[in-house]
Design brief:
Elements lengths: L9 H7 L15 E2 L5 E2 L14 H4 L38 H30 L3 H24 L12 E3 L4 H32 L1 H4 L5 H23 L10 H19 L3 H4 L1 H16 L4 H6 L20 H31 L9 H21 L4 E3 L1 H10 L4 H15 L2 H8 L3 H26 L3 H18 L10 H7 L2 H19 L4 E6 L5 H14 L4 H21 L7 E9 L2 E8 L6 H9 L7 H13 L2 E7 L2 E9 L1
Antiparallel strand pairs: 1-2, 3-4, 5-6, 6-7, 7-9, 8-9
Length: 652
């Protein structure tokens, strides 16, 4: 029995149980007031049922167990990281109109090259008509502008509520070239519309699908996109008129590459954001010097106008063999695009507030839904799919201005530019070597982004094997290196693309690894105080089967009780809420997942407020939070529409 000194606070007693590494070997089971005025803590083996350590607050007046007495020791605090940049205007603030317009122009100009060049490259490589090119560029600008506005203002469950610039994506280029060759613009439009529906499903069921479409899948497919695009990039670098000078193509491509790479490597701040645009300008002037810049197109384009509506491709609803062969590839790339949107949505949330907040996954769901809306409109409109542009996040970091009105202004500018063919023609007329060099840098960054996703998620032996094998499968099938004589007909069309073959491989192997892993234990019950005994018994059985020692078992039980009490305190009174508790062992640690219907209060934000000394929380809410901070190694709270998931990790 441990007897602290006269007048000691509760946290002083907890310090007596603390290990040399700053962790709690075991939570105190009972703290009772004796007649002598001392606290006593019997550390006998606890019995299943409700943990007695909550008598800390039950056996003394609550005023004595407040933020003063039950303080979090400084060595135990885990504050959320603060923003490293100065936010001048947060997302819900309004900067002056001139500043809003000026920044909106900057956001739009940085992304304009990608929005216009992507459909231009696709259609020129596929050998489609000039009228269709003009229509696709017009539709891409209109759709990008409209969805950028939706992302900024958030309409219901569609939109992030932050500045997320939308634009044409290069990820679909390999599949889109094949679709245009197999069935023309109508087939491409139908494939885009059908694949966009998957994003709405992913946005609605994001909590359920989070273990299927993992960072391993997204990172591998992103690494395969440059492999599939390599033939298109190098073909575009040689795309010059027959009478062009011999050195025109290579010199123009090298100058463009050098301009983009040198600006990105040697300059910093705002100049780095403008590197692709600077490369296009320098490459355009170089092409003009060699006579390969299509100046006649620019001269012939009107200042104001509309494309030929007869070029609108419509939808091909025949659903032939080409459609079914290409659909899996489009679906996989669509899911990867959703992963990209997820990353940008997280980044812009972190950049948009002066005080760091927990990630709002409802905003991410809205961003993915808006991405799906953009692809749906792109397919209906007969242009290429779109996605979020990371350049918008970079500008937000640099300027510190993240007001939603700036995103609205950028979207309106995109729509306005669609009706200005002269300005758009300046970009469409870029020589092939300039477009190819620009695309080479973009797809190289896609490869690196895929590597970053994989490394951030952690690569153990199994994941490394899956990624490496899937990548080589995609590479081999892309260039017909694996028994091409057997891959004919429908199978040849299905597996003839590296992204499809590699994507299917990584999904199957990841699924096999998940299915053959140790099965987690699950408990379905009501989220109520009366369920605590059932939860405690469940965790005792889990700990026994997982061979957890007494210390680990006690901490698991304490964490579960404090988490349940916190969820109950944050939920609306009088509502019936179900709870799914998932427990799994991970080496020497254990993870507990508490899945319940959603609320508006984020547990991570509450813990951060406690760590920073904020006193806005009522004392009744503080106590379980402070105890949870003592017992848990990490706490992650993911809030989705109608669902919330609290993941608590406990080390032994």
């Amino acid at each position: 029995m441990v007897r602290p000194r006269q007048g000691a606070t509760v946290v002083d007693h907890l310090e007596g149980h603390r290990g040399v590494q700053g962790r709690w070997p075991a939570p105190p089971r009972t703290l009772r007031r004796q007649q002598t005025g001392r606290w006593a803590c019997p550390c006998e083996r606890p019995t299943p049922g409700r943990l007695d350590h909550r008598r800390i607050v039950q056996r003394v007046p609550f005023a004595q167990v407040s933020a003063t007495t039950l303080r979090t020791p400084s060595s135990c605090r885990k504050p959320m990281p603060s923003a490293e940049h100065e936010v001048r205007y947060e997302a819900d603030e309004r900067p002056p109109l001139p500043l809003t317009v000026g920044l909106g122009i900057q956001y739009a100009m940085v992304a304009l090259g990608g929005v216009v060049l992507t459909p231009a490259i696709l259609i020129s490589v596929a050998g489609q008509s000039e009228a269709y090119l003009n229509w696709a560029v017009f539709a891409a600008l209109v759709v990008s502008g409209l969805v950028t506005v939706v992302q900024s203002v958030r309409l219901g469950r569609i939109g992030a509520g932050y500045i997320l610039i939308m634009g044409s994506t290069t990820a679909f280029l390999p599949m889109s070239v094949t679709a245009l060759a197999e069935g023309g613009p109508g087939l491409l439009a139908t494939l885009i519309v059908m694949s966009s529906l998957v994003q709405f499903v992913l946005g609605a069921k994001m909590a359920l699908l989070r273990r299927v479409f993992t960072p391993t899948v997204a990172g591998t497919v992103l690494m395969l996109i440059p492999v599939s695009l390599a033939p298109i990039v190098f073909k575009k670098m040689e795309d010059v008129p027959a009478d062009a000078p011999e050195l025109g193509a290579p010199v123009t491509a090298l100058v463009t590459l050098a301009a983009i790479v040198l600006v990105a490597l040697r300059l910093s701040g705002a100049w780095r954001v403008w590197a692709p645009a600077i490369g296009l300008v320098v490459g355009g002037f170089t092409g003009l010097a060699f006579g390969i810049y299509d100046i006649e197109r620019v001269a012939a384009a009107p200042w104001l106008g509309l494309p030929q509506f007869s070029a609108y491709p419509g939808l091909d609803l025949t659903f032939g063999s080409a459609f079914w062969a290409l659909l899996p590839g489009f679906l996989i790339v669509t899911l990867v695009g959703a992963m990209d949107t997820l990353g940008d949505a997280i980044a812009i949330q972190r950049a948009s507030w002066r005080q760091a907040r927990a990630i709002d996954f409802r905003s991410i769901q809205g961003a993915i839904n808006a991405d799906g809306l953009g692809n749906l409109l792109s397919g209906i409109g007969g242009t290429v799919p779109n996605t979020t542009y990371g350049s918008g996040v970079a500008i937000a970091e640099l300027t510190g201005i993240t007001a939603r009105s700036v995103g609205v202004c950028a979207g309106i500018l995109f729509v306005a530019l669609a009706f200005m063919p002269k300005l758009v023609a300046l970009i469409v007329a870029m020589p092939g070597p300039v477009a190819g060099a620009y695309l080479a840098v973009i797809v190289a960054l896609l490869f690196v982004f895929g590597v970053k996703i994989l490394t951030a998620d952690g690569l153990d032996y199994r994941k490394s094997l899956i990624v490496g094998f899937a990548f080589w499968v995609g590479l081999a099938f892309q260039f017909d290196l694996v028994y091409p004589q057997f891959l004919t007909g429908a199978w040849g069309e299905l597996l003839g693309h590296g992204m499809t073959a590699g994507g299917i491989t990584v999904i199957l192997l990841s699924g096999f690894l998940d299915l053959t892993a140790a099965r987690p234990r699950r408990l379905r019950t009501a989220l109520s105080a009366s369920s605590l005994a059932e939860i405690d018994g469940f965790l005792c059985r889990f700990a026994s089967k997982a061979r957890c020692d007494e210390t680990m078992t006690s901490r698991l039980r304490a964490v579960a009780e404090e988490t349940v009490h916190t969820l109950l305190a944050n939920g609306a009174s009088g509502t019936d809420r179900g709870l799914l508790l998932v427990a799994r062992r991970d080496g020497k640690a254990a993870d507990l997942e508490f899945i319940a219907s959603g609320t508006d209060v984020n547990l991570e934000d509450q813990l951060a407020m406690l760590s920073e000394g904020v006193t806005e929380l009522p004392n009744e809410s503080e106590t379980p939070l402070r105890l949870l901070r003592h017992y848990a190694t990490s706490v992650r709270h993911q809030q989705y529409h109608d669902t919330e998931i609290v993941t608590v990790r406990v080390d032994s």
